[in-house]
Amino acid sequence: MAVHDAMDVLSGKWKIYIISSICHYNKRRFSDILDDVVGISNKMLSKELKELEVNKLIKRTVLDTQPVTVQYELTEHGLTLKTIVENLTDWGIAHRKEIIGAQNSG
Amino acid sequence: MAVHDAMDVLSGKWKIYIISSICHYNKRRFSDILDDVVGISNKMLSKELKELEVNKLIKRTVLDTQPVTVQYELTEHGLTLKTIVENLTDWGIAHRKEIIGAQNSG
DNA sequence: CAGTATCCCTGTCGATACTG
DNA sequence: CAGTATCGACAGGGATACTG
Fold this sequence. Notes:
Helices cover about 60% and strands about 15% of the residues of chain A. Chain A is an alpha+beta fold. A three-stranded antiparallel beta sheet of chain A has the order 1-3-2. Chain A is globular and about 55 Å long. The mean pLDDT of chain A is about 95. Chain B binds a DNA duplex through α3 and α4.
């Protein structure tokens, strides 16, 4: 099954949300993402960020501040996901309407 | 976070694969999907199909055969997912190339 | 064939505490 | 701030057996 290649990288409870967060802000720090993605723990965020980095979807930059801050952004390759996430978002909104509409009329 | 609406419906280990299977064949029977989606159990398939049906993404039709067969197909609304799944598939293939290419050249 | 019910193992993940 | 390490709960889900 062909979707498998994509699912390998994107499955997991939080990946899409993390990508969506970084996508939206272009650059985003660890604690900011922690804040964006409601419910995620630092452990999970750390783990999933690492996986996304291994897959070259995001780039991690340590900034020389005091204390250290770390910035995440999509790589050029990661940016190719932007459309998909946007489509997904739009679809979700449309879906919500569909379901709510069905409840009202039926 | 806006993707949430979509993720609510599509998250889960198997949903995308199931949709992809039905999508590909237009109409598909329980045991055929069981066969398409490598690794899924009948319990999981049954459960996830039910969730997809509740969300009006698929339609379930019991055929009057002996023994009974059941056919699943995307609803009109479910068909709006087709593009997304296709994009996801294409992205996955491109991603695979990207990663393999990076290994060769780096 | 198309499911449902049960039993039980496993990995996921949250909470907490700690480091540089 | 940005993580890492550890512990334990708990649900996800596999195997199997059963029904109509």
